[in-house]
């Protein structure tokens, strides 16, 4: 299974001023597989150390954290003779021993010749006093579930992946129906590697009940993580994590997808749930898209911290917990209408983030008009409209183009590409590569 993030890691390996790398991402997104495969391809040896339930490593990192002391112990633990330049050191599940994360600072300052990757999430690190993130001493990357192009490659459809990657509009038009069929499969399966692998190996005799069972199992593992730090977490946090998570499908089913605390529980307020939301975002289980008060460059300066949308980390998991039958998605465009655009926006959000974009959205104060997403591109702001199905009416998009003097806009739907004045119509599956 090929991952596009491999290119990022390859570039990191060859940097002259290389720092230790922290690879974040949701559980089950494929971090461990990726770093092990990276080690196989680009290093002579890989010293892999899991910090999960590892008392020896907990004791090791409670003492002196100089590389001179740590490297021999890591060699012994991994069974690999660690040599700078030829060995990749992998500290997996680093959040389980937060002082191991702090130790990366000393590798950066005192032993930069060692190639070190730490994988994990932010969950739990804030609960351990006396530990700190080594700001400025590490390079950080976030791995998402497989994007649609990676799904196509896993399916053996490299040619279709190239069509999407290269934004070949003629080929998109010719092969549109075929790519859309693959997109429907992706909306059912999602991008969790274990689920994709099971689907690919079983196709065409796919047992979609088994696919859903795998997705449900992943969700239950997430819920188990919620309660893992219950003893050291603020009182009631585990309950709030579950409440926020459970509310997201119904939040996305609304016409206006702004997150509403009152939909979690009657009378719910921001201060009740802001910590739970931040934890879910930090662990990449939830994707947060902030509102901007005006869609102007730079977007960050116009962010409205009081309003945002939340999406799940994976469209397949959204389908599973929403209890939508695969046949509903695979049969025509029914899913887009039935879910009121929730699946289309969920997919779009995932693809934008996986492509390295930082999406925002804009909505008028009186909620009379909205732009689904706005992104920065070459020093300007570009509006992106996501349409559910084949209806391309977009009054808000055209009104905002005039109001904010946008010179170009993109509208994504289930239709083939075409140009409509300053609005470029593209298929939904092209949102991760539209700028090309």
What is the topology?
Blueprint: H1 5-13, E1 21-25, H2 31-42, E2 45-50, H3 55-60, H4 67-78, E3 87-92, H5 98-110, E4 115-120, E5 139-143, H6 148-154, H7 158-166, H8 169-174, H9 176-189, H10 193-202, H11 208-228, H12 237-253, H13 270-282, E6 286-292, E7 303-312, H14 315-321, H15 326-330, H16 334-338, H17 342-354, E8 360-363, E9 370-377, E10 380-386, H18 395-403, E11 409-413, E12 418-420, E13 423-427
Parallel strand pairs: 1-4, 1-5, 2-3, 3-4, 6-8, 10-11, 11-13
Antiparallel strand pairs: 6-7, 8-9, 9-10, 12-13
Helix pairs in contact: 6-7, 9-14, 10-11, 11-14, 12-13
Short description:
This protein is an alpha/beta fold.
Describe this entry's structure for a reader.
The chain is α/β, with parallel strands linked by helices and 436 residues long. The chain has 2 domains: 5-143, Rossmann fold, CATH 3.40.50; 148-430, no CATH class. The chain is built from 18 helices and 13 strands. Strands 7-6-8-9-10-11-13-12 form an 8-stranded mixed beta sheet, with helices on both faces. The chain has a 5-stranded parallel beta sheet with strand order 2-3-4-1-5, sandwiched between helices. The two termini are 25 Å apart.
């Amino acid at each position: 299974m090929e991952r596009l993030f491999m290119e990022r890691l390859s570039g990191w390996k060859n940097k002259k001023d290389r720092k230790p790398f922290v690879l974040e991402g949701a559980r089950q997104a494929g971090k461990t597989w990726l770093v092990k495969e990276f080690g196989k391809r680009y290093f002579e040896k890989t010293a892999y150390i899991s910090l999960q339930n590892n008392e020896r490593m907990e004791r090791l990192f409670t003492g002196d954290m100089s590389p001179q002391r740590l490297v021999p112990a890591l060699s012994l633990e991994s069974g690999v003779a660690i040599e700078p330049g030829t060995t990749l050191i992998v500290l997996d599940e680093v959040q389980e021993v937060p002082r191991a994360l702090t130790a990366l600072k000393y590798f950066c300052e005192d032993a930069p010749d060692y190639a070190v990757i730490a994988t994990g999430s932010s969950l739990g690190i804030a609960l351990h006093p006396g530990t700190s993130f080594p700001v400025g001493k590490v390079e950080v990357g976030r791995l998402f579930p497989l994007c649609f192009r990676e799904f196509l490659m896993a399916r053996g459809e490299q040619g279709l992946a190239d069509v999407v990657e290269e934004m070949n509009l003629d080929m998109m038009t010719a092969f549109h129906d075929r790519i859309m069929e693959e997109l429907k499969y992706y909306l059912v399966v999602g991008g969790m590697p274990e689920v994709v692998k099971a689907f690919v190996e079983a196709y065409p005799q796919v047992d979609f009940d088994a696919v859903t069972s795998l997705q449900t199992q992943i969700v239950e593992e997430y819920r188990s993580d919620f309660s893992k730090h219950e003893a050291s977490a603020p009182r009631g946090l585990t309950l709030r994590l579950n409440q926020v998570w459970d509310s997201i499908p119904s939040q996305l089913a609304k016409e206006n997808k702004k997150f509403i605390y009152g939909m979690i529980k009657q009378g719910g307020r921001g201060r009740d749930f802001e910590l739970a939301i931040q934890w879910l975002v930090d662990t990449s289980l939830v994707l947060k898209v902030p509102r901007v008060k005006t869609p102007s460059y730079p977007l960050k300066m116009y962010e409205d911290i009081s309003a945002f949308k939340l999406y799940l980390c994976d469209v397949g998991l959204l389908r599973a917990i929403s209890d939508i039958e695969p046949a509903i998605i695979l049969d025509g465009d029914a899913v887009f209408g039935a879910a009121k655009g929730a699946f289309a926006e969920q997919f779009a959000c995932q693809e934008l983030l996986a492509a390295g974009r930082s999406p925002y959205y804009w909505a008028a104060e009186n909620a009379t008009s909205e732009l689904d997403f706005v992104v920065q591109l070459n020093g300007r702001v570009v509006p992106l409209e996501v349409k559910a199905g084949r209806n391309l009416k977009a009054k808000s998009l055209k009104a905002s183009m005039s109001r904010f003097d946008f010179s170009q806009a993109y509208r994504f739907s289930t239709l083939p590409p075409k140009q409509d004045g300053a609005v470029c119509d593209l298929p939904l599956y092209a949102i991760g590569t539209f700028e090309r």
